[in-house]
Design brief:
The protein is an alpha+beta fold. It folds into three domains: 317 residues, FAD/NAD(P)-binding domain; 41 residues; 164 residues, Alpha-Beta Complex (Flavocytochrome C3, Chain A, domain 1). It contains 17 helices and 22 strands. The strands form five sheets. Strands 1, 2, 8, 9, 10, 11, 21 and 22 form an eight-stranded mixed sheet that branches. Strands 12, 14, 15, 16, 17, 18 and 19 form a seven-stranded mixed sheet that branches. α1 links the parallel β1 and β2. It comes from Nonomuraea terrae. One of its GO terms (biological process) is steroid metabolic process.
Length: 549
């Protein structure tokens, strides 16, 4: 009965990151009455503080630039890289992603989202069949002032408040040690100053993406409720017909005539789940609201779960404030190695962050150590140390010594073992071939390298004192396990049947990318695509038993 409901909409969407906003924009475009609810007091989710890239094979920007790609090549690449990980990455879901990705790019462009191609960024396995360079896209710097007071509620302001773009980063990491890095840094400064001079508040990366999407959501006049978590899904005769939303001290029953879409992130900050599924407490860069609530609600409704033991792994160094700082180019640049607690290398330091994270976890005994020499410290940007090194020294988190033996003693590693590891690595740096782990072999490895270092831009000998070491822990950009969904983003039961009226996208779901990370933006790209597909399916009224108006 109508009197049982506090509010009635066509589509109720939980979350405010890329998946949720993509769904909201699509549903509103189809003339549906949409309500978007966010559990925290800030909107944007992990998207807003991310790199902001979307891995979108065969996208219109590639075609415009004359960069050849095809669905067939991208599918061959995904099949080869991802392999068989079960229904989360079924062939149907891969095809749904690949067929829809170009369409979503065009669709959001029609709504005012201004894309740019990250033309230099390789797939993470560019040497595998179908691998390419330049499949990622991002949003051009966005003026947050266009959002008015809503800008102040954006999680994007928690990130880097400058208009940096993806293809800036690889050169900015060596901004004061190479001519092209200096030029790229100068361009960023001019871009930032140009925004200030014209009265704009330009944001880049994930902030630009989140703000661009929210700008469309606000223009569509879709209500957005902050501090309003979903606490319960309402089911009638096996169908999700709405949800309970906690708002301003009240529990509101919201009916969703066409469906409920869950795009509320993963469980990166749920310590019990992290320990249960990952065996580590988790050192995550995701926002604090990433508690797994939407996954739990879906499971209570009968949903199957998959890939709960995995995450968008990488590595992190823990700062004096206790917060993790994601490590990317720092471990890839020359004049550095990463060693275990025995002082031995254990993987390719320049590998994709998820592979590096998996290898780090496999060590068992943590932490590992990022060991560098004076040239690495002098030439390359360390994101974690931008605020100054002294606090890190004082907290014992950054070690410095005049010799490798002294550094090993501070690390509590056998000096002879560390010296032997460095001596062997230095030999590889001389020949340009890492005979142990193949570091610097692929275009992705070399993307975060220094082309001035010969013969291999990722291999530089550790010879110049002082030497440094930082503890490295398994970090992540969010979790990648969750509700199992099909090619329409419908949430599935254990028997493979969809739960009518329930959809999910983004990190609330088990990833179509399986246990790997095919290319830059492999988190956000599928989030946007499957959020779009969820809204299209809900709008079409194709779920069994859709409630009439």
């Amino acid at each position: 009965m109508a009197e049982e409901w506090d509010k009635i909409v066509d589509v109720l969407i939980a979350g405010s990151g890329a998946a949720a906003m993509s769904a909201a924009i699509t549903a509103a475009d189809r003339k549906l009455d949409v309500l978007l609810v966010e559990s925290t007091d800030k909107w944007g989710g992990t998207t807003a503080i991310s790199g902001g890239g979307l891995w979108m094979p065969n996208n219109p920007l590639m075609r415009h630039a004359g960069a050849h790609d095809s669905l067939e090549e991208a599918l061959a690449y995904m099949e080869d890289v991802i392999g068989d990980v079960g229904p989360a990455s079924s062939r149907e879901r891969k095809l749904a992603f690949l067929r829809t990705a170009p369409e979503v790019v065009r669709f959001l462009h029609r709504h005012g989202v201004r894309w740019a191609r990250s033309k230099d960024y390789p797939d993470y396995y560019p040497d595998r069949p179908g691998g390419k360079i330049g499949r990622a896209i991002e949003v051009r710097p966005f003026d947050a002032k266009l959002l008015g007071p809503w800008a102040e509620r954006s999680r994007a302001l928690d990130g880097l408040p400058v208009p940096v773009m993806t293809d800036d980063v690889w050169q900015l990491s060596r901004a004061w040690s190479s001519p092209d890095g200096f030029v790229r840094g100068a361009r960023l400064v001019l871009r930032t100053l140009g925004g200030v001079a014209t009265g704009k508040r330009l944001l880049g990366s994930g902030g630009a993406l989140a703000c661009s999407l929210m700008y469309v959501v606000r223009n569509q006049q879709t209500p957005v409720w902050l501090s309003s978590p979903l606490t319960e899904l309402i089911m009638e005769d096996g169908r999700v017909t709405g949800a309970v939303v906690s708002r301003e001290g009240r529990s509101l029953r919201v009916r969703a005539r066409n469906g409920v879409i869950l795009g509320a992130g993963g469980f990166a900050h749920n310590p019990e789940w992290r320990q249960k599924h990952h065996g580590v407490p988790g050192w995550s860069s995701a926002p604090e609201g990433d508690l797994g609530t939407a996954i739990e609600l879906g499971a209570r409704a009968g949903a199957a779960l998959a890939l709960m033991d995995d995450a968008w792994w990488g590595s992190a160094v823990i700062g004096p404030d206790g917060h993790p700082n994601f490590v990317l180019w720092e471990r890839s640049m020359p004049f550095s190695i990463v060693v275990d607690t025995q002082g031995r290398r254990f993987t390719n330091e320049s590998a994709s962050y998820i592979d590096f994270g998996h290898d780090l976890l496999a060590l068992g005994k943590l932490p590992a150590w990022l060991v560098t020499d004076a040239r690495h410290a002098r030439r390359y940007l360390s994101a974690a140390l931008l605020a100054g090194r002294q606090r890190w020294y004082d907290a014992g988190l950054l070690l410095k010594a005049g010799s490798l033996g002294e550094l090993a003693a501070e690390m509590e590693v056998a000096p002879a073992a560390l010296r032997a590891t460095v001596e062997r690595f230095n030999g590889f740096a001389g020949t340009g071939v890492d005979e142990d782990f193949g570091r610097g072999r692929t275009a992705y490895d070399r993307y975060y390298g220094d082309p001035r270092v010969k013969p291999n831009p990722n291999l530089g000998p550790l010879e110049k004192a002082p030497f440094y070491a930082m503890r490295v822990h398994p970090g992540d950009l969010g979790t990648k396990g969750g509700l199992l969904t099909d090619e329409h983003a419908r949430v599935l039961r254990e028997d493979g049947a969809p739960i009518p009226g329930l959809y999910a996208a983004g990190n609330t779901t088990a990833s179509v990318m399986g246990r790997t990370y095919p290319g830059p933006g492999s988190t956000i790209g599928p989030a946007v695509v499957f959020g779009h597909l969820a809204a299209l399916h809900a709008a079409a009224g194709q779920s069994p038993g859709v409630i009439g108006r």
